[in-house]
What does this fold into?
Amino acid sequence: MSWWQRIKEQFGAGKTVPEHLRRGTLGEAAAKKYLQKAGLKFLTANFRSERGEIDLIFRDGEMLVFVEVKTRSSEDWVRPAGAVNARKRRLLSMTALDYLKLLKNPPVNIRFDVVEVLLKDGEVREIRHLPATFTLSKPFRYG
It folds into this structure.
């Protein structure tokens, strides 16, 4: 094996990205652009703690906005936001609290938004922003 092949193998060059990950990346980029156009200030993407991941985090005035992006190529079974069930809301709540803890619990209001990104033939067909889709899961509290 040549040194070039070893480097490619080591760092994953030439590997194909699974379709669901490619779609997710495309959806998150589209959602980020959409929300920035709407006037929200982008803070970070793919924040991870040991309890989960938040796709996008924005500031909307004095409010901190945690955004879950759901990208689908079809709505035949259920709307994309339907995938944000009670378990997912709980994980997002705990991860948001981890983010706030890193910021030393600033005195801000928070909200959880969902952005649905619909694709057709690999292109973004429609974006739906659902602000304040849910609140911090019980028994968690902030502020």
Notes: The chain is about 30% helix and 35% strand. The mean pLDDT is 90. The beta strands are 41-49, 52-60, 63-72, 109-120, 123-134.
